[in-house]
Design goal:
Length: 205
């Protein structure tokens, strides 16, 4: 099953509907054609009272590829970084807590993008990827264009002791290290996709 975020709303793509369907949902669509999927997505986008929706079919990977064709699809990567003091790297951007991430450049792997973005957005080097976490998906609208973004997330180690420096040109106002017990305030003011990253890393809410 794939989970796609529309701000605070969620669309699930599944090929195991009986297993994945919850009791509380607001929209359900069986994939039959791209045209009908496009119509369903437009309805889901326009009706913000629809909080949870499902698209189901024979193959969830096919459904994801079909959904990508309904949007301008872009890719990004980022990292959940831990330092030698067991503190986590958190940034503050556009009024909410976030994790460092950014769009992939031509020819870049997700791993290279993630390392570069953490270095650029927080002024840190001496980083190493420990392992992949997951990919998150979210939609947004910019200048009249509807985007679907996939962000690949990695768990990283930072081996230095530098104080992070926020990249102001990326609207980052703060970059700081937080202990696990301090993350509660982050959970209360961040994006649903970022909560997915913490969950996958075993940092319970």
């Amino acid at each position: 099953m794939y989970k796609v975020f529309f701000k605070d709303r969620t669309l699930f793509l599944t090929d195991a509907l009986e297993q994945d369907l919850t009791q509380n949902f607001d929209a359900l669509h069986k994939y039959t054609s791209h045209h009908e999927l496009q119509q369903f997505i437009e309805t889901f986008e326009q009706n913000e009272h629809l909080m949870v929706g499902y698209v189901y079919g024979r193959n969830k990977d096919f459904l994801l590829e079909a959904l990508k064709k309904c949007y301008h699809f872009i890719t990004a990567a980022g990292g959940l970084v831990i330092n030698p003091n067991n503190e986590y790297l958190i940034i503050h951007r556009l009024g909410v807590y976030d994790l460092p991430k950014g769009k992939t450049e031509a020819g870049e792997t997700f791993r290279k993008t993630a390392l570069r973005e953490v270095e650029e957005e927080c002024g840190l080097s001496d980083l190493a990827i420990r392992h992949p976490l997951l990919s998150t998906f979210h939609t947004y609208r910019q200048n009249g264009v509807f985007y679907l973004k996939e962000t690949a997330w990695f768990f990283m180690d930072y081996f230095g002791f530098e104080v992070p420096t926020p990249q102001s040109e990326e609207n980052i106002t703060k970059a700081e290290w937080m202990k696990k017990e301090e993350l509660t305030k982050v959970y209360k003011s961040t994006y649903p996709s970022i909560l997915e990253v913490f969950n996958k890393a075993g940092l319970s809410l």
